[in-house]
Design goal:
By secondary structure, the protein is mainly alpha-helical. The protein contains 10 helices and 3 strands; from the N terminus they run H-H-H-H-H-H-H-H-E-E-H-E-H. The chain has 2 domains: about 200 residues, Cation efflux protein transmembrane domain (Alpha-lytic protease prodomain-like, Up-down Bundle), CATH 1.20.1510.10; about 90 residues, Cation efflux protein, cytoplasmic domain (Alpha-Beta Plaits, 2-Layer Sandwich), CATH 3.30.70.1350. A 3-stranded mixed β-sheet has the order 1-2-3. The structure holds zinc ion (2 copies).
Length: about 300
């Protein structure tokens, strides 16, 4: 049984990512212009960052084309691992970004506190915070609905961009209110870097878990088991296995039915089990049911059962 991904999720993912890409382009243009006119190196550098952010939007847009493609003879399980790769790339970008932020904050503290950012920097920062936070909310909502880790990772990139503008606001406002406390923006930058690293690690660990075929959680397995057992004709189930693949699950299990049933009836029951798990299970993308007579558990396919997680 195979279920193709709903097209509307793909369309929504594409729309929100294009919006992010265009926003980053506009932000880059605004920051380059304002930075050069106002002679602010920091704002020009920030514009370069917005330009670099295009890379992660592009990775999602290009990746989406491939990972949403249906299974073919060369890739009979579909192409969803491509999404995992894109997710890992975005997670790595976030780590690099956080490291850059932390290094700048520390090296500037060790030297002398730099020039206080001016009004142009403040305006650019406030613009970034507002726009990127809005973009985060939209993207993460679409990502959760579509069950797309890459989209959620890209959403966190938007939010990280928003966070990393906070130190600039801190710098300007403290310079105006308490000129002696100008170091707070460095502390702020370090805190922000730490938060970004934390999110990036979670994104990376989840994606790596997908790559090494981590099982679904206990709750999800219980739910699948309950669905299978609830189907009339199913006497018991065992050897339930699952592996995660970019926000979804591949599941296989053995069901036992009355051995006196016809092959046709047994096949019908396993079809009902598959459809029920696909429909009511926790984001199950594919199910394979192995059918056996209830008296044969430890004989006919004992070897296979021992190797599986029952
Ligand atoms: Zn960024
Ligand atoms: Zn079995």
């Amino acid at each position: 049984m195979r279920k193709t991904e709903p097209d509307r999720h793909i369309a929504a993912s594409r729309r929100v990512t294009w919006a992010g890409l265009v926003t980053n382009l506009v932000l880059a243009a605004v920051k380059f212009t304002a930075g050069s006119l106002g002679h602010s190196q920091a704002v020009v550098a920030d514009g370069a960052h917005s330009l670099a952010d295009l890379v992660s939007d592009l990775a999602v847009l290009v990746g989406l084309r491939f990972w949403s493609a249906p299974a073919d003879s060369g890739h009979p399980y579909g192409h969803r691992r491509i999404e995992t790769l894109v997710t890992i790339a975005i997670g790595a970008m976030l780590i690099v970004m956080a490291a850059g932020l932390a290094i700048r904050a520390i090296s500037a503290v060790v030297l002398v506190h730099g020039e206080t950012p001016g009004w142009i920097a403040l305006t650019a920062a406030l613009l970034s915070i507002g726009v990127k936070e809005a973009l985060y909310r939209w993207t993460v909502q679409v990502g959760r609905r579509a069950g797309s880790p890459a989209l959620i990772a890209n959403a966190w990139h938007h939010r990280s961009d928003s966070f990393s503008s906070v130190p600039v606001v801190l710098a300007v406002s403290t310079a105006m209110l308490h000129p002696r406390m100008v170091f707070v923006d460095h502390v702020g930058a370090l805190v922000v870097a730490g938060m970004i690293v934390k999110v990036a690690c979670r994104i990376l660990l989840d994606a790596i878990g997908d790559l090494i075929d981590r099982s679904a959680g206990r709750e999800d397995l219980k739910r699948i088991e309950k669905i299978a057992r609830s189907i009339p004709g199913v006497r018991s189930i065992h050897a339930l296995r699952s592996r995660r693949i970019s926000g979804g699950l591949f599941v296989d299990l053995h069901i036992q039915v009355d051995g006196a049933l016809s092959v046709r009836e047994g096949h019908r029951i396993s079809g009902v089990v598959e459809r029920a798990i696909l429909k009511h299970g926790p984001r199950v993308l594919d199910v394979v049911v192995h059918l056996e007579p209830s008296e044969a558990q430890r004989t006919a396919d004992g070897t296979r059962d021992r190797g599986a997680a029952t």
